[in-house]
Amino acid sequence: MGELKNHEDNPNPEDDDTNNHLHKKPKPSYITAPELHHEFAHHQPTVARINNGSFGSCPASIIAAQQHWQLKFLQQPDDFFFNTLPSQILRSRTLIKDLINADDVTEVSIVDNATTAAAIVLQHVGWAFAEGRFNKGDAVVMLHCAFQAVKKSIEAYVTRAGGDVIVVHLPFPVNSNEEIIAQFRLGLAKGKLNGRKVRLAIIDHITSMPSVIIPVKELVRICREEGVNQVFVDAAHAVGSVPVDVKEIGADFYVSNLHKWFFCPPSVAVLYCQKSSLSSDLHHPVVSHEYGNGLAIESAWIGTRDYSSQLLVPEVVDFVNRFEGGIRGIMTRNHDAVVEMGMMLAKSWGTILGSPPEMCPSMAMVGLPSSLGVLSDDDAKNLRVHLRDRFNIEVPIHYQPLKDAEVGPRDESSGFITGYARISHQVYNTVDDYLKFRDAVNQLLQDGFKCKMLSSRD
């Protein structure tokens, strides 16, 4: 991930006082605890919010900046849309280019979210099947834990046009990158059976549920070796959570939300399209006046709407640079904290983490005690609602079925672990949030709670 500079940094180093030995650079003044509390004082104070991964979080200073842009539009819409909007979106795209280490700003488009980006890429692939450039029955390979919206886009654009879908089932809990790589190779081999070609591989950078960092660079490299036409990395959780270098990753397409871990208000995402002959044939699914002028320009105008969230990247850069180490420092501290809290919870409950610490981003999967009886997706959903309603704890719950009746990790009571909590850590979280969660689960255990008690109330 490229170095983030404040958007008002002096572009002329010869004029910078830091190059004059008569002037020492003042020690940076980082955000204080009261200032940090103020930035997130709008969060509901009674809720242990350990689910930043779902919707992200937006500081008060960024909300205020967004309101400024919204008012500016309402004051004089014509001037804003014709004279202000294009230059301000370009300004955001330029900063994003540096953030993800793209070669050129033309490779960077700003879209609503990763779902929109998936539609853009899969629409492009669907056209190739429909127009005969790809053969019917050629394959698209994806991970089984791909985001549901991506699966639906594949159904809408690719399957309908005659493409076949190969699903790679990843192990979980997972112990190493090698386990993932081995399964991915099997999926590619299946996609190439009987002379077929793999036209697209969709790879998560960080899977959503269960949450695991995928060895994306290695998988992209394997795709190139195996002759896969195009590679799309769905990195919805990446920017602000893990370092991102799109040139090093090497995919054709890479998308990451900026409202999850980079403090932008919802919703805004970056879609990187490596400059090639392919990129000129990508189009936004909402067709407006700019159709045919390149994806970045098409995406910057899809009709009258609120574009303010796309204009705030400069302000967000300033915000993250108020923290020691900037965005890299935030990422490191979030990772270390979520692993520490995950291990604390697992120790208290006699369970495990779902992956090694190095495969955890700013989220971690923590095994739940088997006696809670998380035995289905409905159990997981009901337990999540129960934790919210009874204990004011917001945390996603994942049901992980056993491979068979006799194989799977066990907790200290020798029961199989089939339920996991996905905990997040962001700058606003405190240890008390995780202690509240720990104590809530321990209270449920003490009460003899079982998830089936919730379904029986329906």
Keywords:
single chain, 458 residues, alpha/beta, 7-stranded mixed beta sheet, 3-stranded antiparallel beta sheet, 39% helix
Q: Summary?
A:
The protein is α/β, with parallel strands linked by helices and 458 residues long. It has helices at residues 33-39, 52-55, 60-75, 77-100, 114-130, 148-158, 177-191, 216-225, 246-249, 295-299, 313-320, 326-349, 377-391, 431-446, 452-455; strands at residues 48-49, 108-111, 139-143, 164-168, 198-204, 230-234, 253-257, 269-273, 363-367, 393-394, 397-399, 419-424.
Description:
It is a single chain. Helix 3 (about 60-75) runs antiparallel to helix 4 (about 75-100) and helix 5 runs parallel beside helix 6. Mean pLDDT is about 90; it is low at about 5-25. This protein is about 40% helix and about 10% strand. The termini are far apart. The chain is built from 15 helices and twelve strands. By secondary structure, it is of the alpha/beta class.
Mean pLDDT: 90
Based on helices, strands and strand pairing, what is the structural class?
alpha/beta
What is the C-alpha radius of gyration, as a whole number of Å?
23 Å
Separate helix tally: 15
Termini gap: 48 Å
Write the layout of secondary structure elements.
Layout: H1 33-39, E1 48-49, H2 52-55, H3 60-75, H4 77-100, E2 108-111, H5 114-130, E3 139-143, H6 148-158, E4 164-168, H7 177-191, E5 198-204, H8 216-225, E6 230-234, H9 246-249, E7 253-257, E8 269-273, H10 295-299, H11 313-320, H12 326-349, E9 363-367, H13 377-391, E10 393-394, E11 397-399, E12 419-424, H14 431-446, H15 452-455
Parallel strand pairs: 1-10, 3-4, 3-5, 5-6, 6-7
Antiparallel strand pairs: 2-8, 7-8, 9-12, 11-12
